[in-house]
Write a structure and sequence with these properties.
With 378 residues, the chain is an alpha+beta fold. 46% of the residues lie in helices and 14% in strands. The protein has a single domain, classed as Cytochrome P450 (Cytochrome p450, Orthogonal Bundle). Strands 1-2 form a two-stranded antiparallel ribbon. A hairpin with a 5-residue loop joins strand 4 and strand 5. The longest helix has 32 residues. Pathway: Secondary metabolite biosynthesis.
Length: 378
């Protein structure tokens, strides 16, 4: 029976056990509460938001209030990445949920929306002329530290001896000439960007769909079910597409025959060396041949079966979803996203009812590096 081995290990060896797995890999088996609290502490930020929201409602006399959930979810995920004691965290208390003044938190608030959507005339002109600038000017612009890089450099200062991702990178920088300071800052910036706004915006889409489907919200309140989480990952992939450059020419067979514009039927495509290929996560996750005729409908019930698909593709790291990409360059933090979403759901859903704000508000999807929800008041 499932769990029998765990029970046996606990009876015979206590609450913590080191064991060797495949290829000699060392594992720690534990049921010790303090160890578990240490390992999972980063995923408790949702409960801080619960306390804050209760205070806001109490100050309003117990009457329902309109909150900017997007901003709160961004703080939850940012604090979770900073405070964790595991290798995908920075072991740094940002305190954005507590209202602490933190320059890093300010810099990353709505960073993608500001960087990719809210462009002024000067930004547009710069993008048009940058391709005509001399190479030495391009190098100067590329290597000058911006505000984000300075903040990451401050965080990295003095981080030695720890097991979090920042300490590991800083130590590697000390012992290896292959990691420059610029590379270190770039790695930390990428990890923070990849784990912060992606998770926050995915949860934004989740709560948006729940506010539009109160019946499913009631079911979810009775039981936090994984299919809700999977469906929002399918329906609202936070990255719309990715690109790959072919290292060599190839002939790739198609899973389904396609008709060309001149009426011919093809069963394979040719890819030339150094050809750039665009992979659409958005379209794949709505492919009717995989997800069924209701692929364009938000329907968590599709995951009542094992993977929610009518055809197994073997793609992706979770349930045939392409949201986290696939293969050796798939998202390294996808497990963090899943755990953080589950933890936040478990904290917020039992305590609050979510509904659309008053007024005629239209939410639409904007590709601003990530698929962000933008609102328009009509």
């Amino acid at each position: 029976m499932l769990g029998d081995a765990d029970f046996s290990w606990m009876r015979n060896y206590g609450t913590a056990l080191y064991m060797r797995g495949p290829f000699g890999r060392l594992f720690l088996f534990t049921v010790d509460p303090r160890v578990i609290q240490r390992l999972l502490s980063a995923f408790e930020k949702g409960h801080l938001a619960v306390a804050k929201w209760r205070d806001i409602i109490a100050q309003n006399g117990g009457i329902p209030v309109v909150l900017n959930v997007h901003s709160w979810l961004a703080r939850i995920t940012l604090d979770a990445i900073g405070a964790g004691n595991y290798q995908m965290s920075m072991d740094y208390d940002l305190g954005s949920l507590q209202g602490n003044e933190n320059e890093l938190a300010k810099v990353y608030e709505n960073l993608f929306a500001h960087a990719h959507y809210n462009w002024g005339d000067a930004d547009i002109v710069f993008l048009d002329v940058v391709g005509y600038l001399p190479e030495w000017i391009i190098d100067l612009l590329r290597n000058s530290p911006d505000k984000r890089s300075k903040q990451m450099s401050l965080l990295a200062a003095g981080k030695e001896g720890g097991k979090d991702i920042m300490s590991l990178l800083v130590n590697a920088n000390h012992w290896s000439a292959t990691i420059s300071t610029e590379d270190l800052v770039a790695q930390l910036t990428t990890l923070l960007l990849a784990g912060h706004e992606t998770t926050a915006s995915t949860m934004n889409w989740l709560f948006y769909e729940l506010s539009r489907h109160p019946d499913i919200q009631i079911k979810l309140r009775k039981e936090i079910i994984a299919r809700i989480r999977r469906e929002v990952l399918r329906y609202h992939p936070i990255q719309a597409r990715t690109t790959r450059i072919a290292g060599q020419g190839d002939i790739i067979p198609l899973s389904e025959a396609q008709k060309t514009t001149d009426g011919k039927t093809i069963t394979e495509v040719a890819v030339e060396k150094e050809q750039r290929t665009i992979v659409s996560f958005d379209a794949y996750n709505r492919l009717t041949s995989i997800w069924g005729e209701d692929a364009h409908v938000w329907n968590p019930e599709r995951f009542l079966n094992d993977n929610g698909t009518k055809t197994k593709t073997g793609l992706g790291v979770l349930s045939n979803l392409l949201t986290f990409s696939s293969g050796e360059r798939s998202c390294i933090g996808w497990r963090f996203v899943i755990l953080e979403m589950q933890s936040t759901l478990c904290a917020l859903i039992p305590n609050f009812k979510f509904s659309s704000p008053p007024g005629n508000v239209v939410i639409f999807r904007v590709a601003s590096g990530l698929m962000l929800p933008m609102d328009v008041f009509l």
